[in-house]
Amino acid sequence: MVGLWPKATTLSLLRELRSTSGATFGTGVKQALIELGLAITKYQRLLRIQDGGCNNRSQQMLDEIANTGHANWSPHDHTDWLLLEIDSDVMLRPEQVDVALATISPESGQNSVVQLLMGKGKTSCILPMVALELASENLFRIIVPRPLLLQSAQIMQTKLGGLLDREVIHVPFSRKTPTSEGMIRAYDQLHCEIQNRSGVILALPEHILSFRLSGIQRLCDAKYNEAALMIETQTRFDKDARDVLDECDITLGIRTQLIYPSGSQQTVDGHPLRWKTVQSVLDLVFSYVDDLTHRFPNSIEVVVRTGLPLVYFLREDVERYLVEQMLLKICRGQTPILPVRHLQPSLQNDIHDFISKSIVDAKVTARVYSMFQEKRHLVDVLLHLRGLFVHGILLSTLKKRWNVQYGLHQTRDPIAVPYQAKGVPSPTSEWGHPDVAIILTCLSFYYGGLNMAQFKRAFNQLAKSNEPSIEYGIWVAEGVPEAFMNYNGINAEDSHQLRELHEHVRYKVCLLDSYLNSFVFPQHAKQFSRKLSASSSDLVLYDPSGQKTAATTGFSGTNDTRHQLPMAIKQNDLHKLAHSNAEVLAYLLEDRNKRYVRMVDPYTRRRLSEKELLKKLFHPGTVQDPHSCIRILIDAGAQILEHDNLGLVKAWLDVDNQAKAGVFFSDNHRAMVYYRKGAMMPLVATPFAKNLEECVVYLDESHCRGTDMKLPPSARAALTLGPHLTKDALVQAAMRMRLLGKSQSVTFFSPPEVHRGILDVRAATPGSPLGTLNSLDVIRWLLKRSCDAIDQLEPLYFNQSLEYLQRIQAGIDHPNFLADKVSRESYLDVVRTEELRSLKQLYGPKYQQTGADIDSHTFAPALRPYVREIVHRRVDFQDCGIAIHSSTLEEVEQEREMEFELECVREVQLPVHFEALEVTELHRHIRQFAKSGTLRVGSNAFEPMFRALQKTALGLKHGTVTADGMPAKLLVSTEFMRTVEITQPNDNFLRPCHWLLWNPKDEIGMLVSPEEANALIPILRYSGGPACHLIVYAAPLTRHMLQFNSIDYYAIPCLPQDFKVPIWLKVELGIFAGRLYLEWDEHKIVMSYLGMKASEQDAAEFVPAQCTESFATRPLAFLHDWLAVRRTGLDFEHTPVSFITTRKPLSARHSFFAQPAKDEDANAEFHRSAPTDQNVEDISDDLDDDEDDLNEFIFQYDGNDDDHDEFRDAAEDFVVEDTTFFDGKAYEQAEDQDVVKK
């Protein structure tokens, strides 16, 4: 047995000190092991002191000498902390212990957060200390912002995975995660196992909120078993979890929320004028830029660049002048926005008051509405303009910075999204208000232009238009070489010619608007009908019964937002650390940090380009130090827009020829080194990891928080300022210089718009000294900016807090909502809110208090103090013109709600794919109708078309579609309306109308699904004189497609030679199918269906017919919205049906009804159906001649369940010879039975 016993090493002995080891010690053994550990920590401390002295790190040496360790804690009580010191080679400092103890067990006994200065070891020391104490008894979760996830995981694994042997896991969850019983039980089991093993769960806020919302979403979807399991699991988490929030000022930020949209997705109200009005208004804004620059040289900054210039508003005087001039021009009818030039001046003044004043007299509103009573779409334009001007949406969005606060995401839908930092688009967030998203999308395309793929798509669309040369002439009207002036001279197959043309026109606003109106807004400017929401308040574990206290704690380096924390958590800073805020400001006010540099050319006074800025860094030329060189650029103000990180470092090395390499962060957030010769590798793998003296270092805006680099002790950094910078953001950026209070320094670089703001603040401050600006002026400006930012978010805070309290109260009022149906409906009525709102709801003038009084007595006793507090703050809130744009109490509620929407940046998780319903066999009543032409009364195999229209999501939304008074001669099969498994109507999955079963004797038609048509074909072929015909149909979307309007393109069996379709069928089928073109002889009958009649004064003008029955109370408005549903992704404004719905004048001489040329007639000629080979060839030729026709009625689902609205053209898969439709062979079942989604 000698030598076989395991060898006892120092590490094996120390491992027994772990709180999770389960070891039982004899007398004095544990004390001896603790003494061994203490001796090791002392030895490590001496080695660190020696290392600091040998490497001239005086500050490190002084810090180690000052910290003898274990002053305010006992290793006997916290043995895990002793092992943490040994394994991490650190000595815990007294303030770290104080913050850790306050996080573990707050003195208040309630949820709380504390502040500790940046660089004091919050993530590297305090978080592991807290985890070691709390994970032993609880389900312990550390919640961090997404950008810090990887860094936090690496640190926690390093600190806890060695001697301490603690497990660290990350369990993501999103709306795409399956919610089957097995999956949820596995998710719960993971948490149970990590709790039993005293491990740590590293979580993101959106993952926590997503699981909470998913259970409620299953409840909304009537999946009660899944909902019950998920909600019960969430209840256990709320009971057992103990959460710690890192960087809680971000995690608990009130700007962000998680949204689960649901229901039918519908185009925004007022389309397509909703976005075309925005485009016209923006065009008007940019037309005033030169005039504004001349009149207000000190109030506006214009950066000339390729395409439209970047505009920065510096003062309110220029904003007021711009708005006044725009309103004057619009109300005089001098723009295409409103055709009011013919109105009397008094009526124009009424319009001016309506779209410019927050409070409008009821008589003025009535007169304005009556002016456009017969053109309701212009009322929507007026309401929209009121929102843009009165609610401040236009100026609010114009003040945001492109590529810094908003822009496009390369892999998401082409709609502007919020940016997390310069050049870093949010992966899932979106703008909460539709008009904000529309304006910022337009600006993003105006500033960024079209890429080559987008330009090709726009050019191909141009070729399909009726008059491509006219539109093309607008594209190339200015600044394009003569060689590209003629549309017929452009070869779409010549990639070189297209690339050259693309460079000349990619920034043309007319081209950009055309692309936006064709491919972006019609398809993506949509909203869901309902939503579930969760905010930062839902991250705080709160028990109204009071049985659980201090379940959520956290810390951060700044506490500027302490007054806007969720109601259930408070800021409780340690008295010893009360100086933290003043400490950093004191650093910045020291003489070495007072340098201030304007980012302008000293001779021309224009803004420095980015290359000129780099030259300025090489020769700063400040008064205090005219010869020093700056090699660290901290871009907190996001002033580097034209270069990416690597490109800037390359340009910097060209300027600074003495630097050996450049350090920057790559797209995957990894610190990289770029050598002058072109080599590139991670920073940790280079000799510069511990010595950056010979490198240039660039920290972009997204890495100004949480980044830790070993910068030289005497380093000097350039710190850029920006118009939206606040004190906490600047302090976080400045403290990347860990020795800022000792030996390192910063120099402030100010762009023109910030410099003007600093001068204004200095001028408004009594007793401010004259002379050179310095850090004192910067801090004064920052404090004002921070106060303004907090004030701006107060309305958002009110709304989020009240919604959270209402959700909590709903759970208290309806504890049995999982089992009781009535309780469930009442509960969902509170937690599920309406998402889709009309323009009138958003912007219409209010003449009574819009917000109901909130009675605290309707809430549970535990919630009443919070309710009273939020109501009291709401009443005391003073409007200083920043957060809201109203001057009276009657409008305050409405405007605060609007501000909530304007500033809302929300994390959105879209619904996952839907399950396709199984195809049923052909109903016997439809089979009977096909053979004999008789219909079974009361059958459930079909229903009238107008009744089917009434049941759609749009029909339910309007609530005005009436099917009872309409003739039931056009039917829709039940199978036609069945596509996917849904709990409520969803118009995204309506089938296109391609197959009509027609009984010519009784003049009854029935729309059937492709599967039903497949089953009907052999019946009609071989039944021997069937009573019905199966006719191919496609809704005319262009003038050339009117050949389908006769509804005799092809039929089985063939139609008689004298067949003529009744005109009512054209009209009704056209309405349901969403056709855009019609013949002039149908115009009057269509108008009659829509409840309109010719005016007695002017036969060309149509007015509502009082006695005529129509299928809807507001048929024109309904049809306009229905076209948007049916024609997703297609701009239909310049079509005959759109002219009808917007009541624009039409005549027989209009170009819509012009006869095609003879050569076009020859190409468009078609033959009636007959089952012969010659007919097959004719049909094939027709389809080849008109690609649009083929694209309309032959689609193939691409199988991608994530994109519900995408189609793939199946023309290449369509082979006439192999298609049994034409040769009478038996049909084979298709392999892919997925429904076509529309």
Automatic annotation (TrEMBL):
GO terms for molecular function: cysteine-type deubiquitinase activity. Its EC number is 3.4.19.12. Residues 1175-1184 have a biased composition (Acidic residues). It is an enzyme of class 3 (hydrolase). The keyword Transit peptide does not apply. This is ubiquitinyl hydrolase 1. Signal peptide: none annotated. Pfam families: DUF3638, DUF3645. It comes from the Eukaryota. It catalyses: Thiol-dependent hydrolysis of ester, thioester, amide, peptide and isopeptide bonds formed by the C-terminal Gly of ubiquitin (a 76-residue protein attached to proteins as an intracellular targeting signal). Residues 409-441 form the DUF3645 domain. It comes from Clathrospora elynae. Keywords: Hydrolase, Protease, Thiol protease, Ubl conjugation pathway. Transmembrane segments: none annotated. Residues 70-291 form the DUF3638 domain.
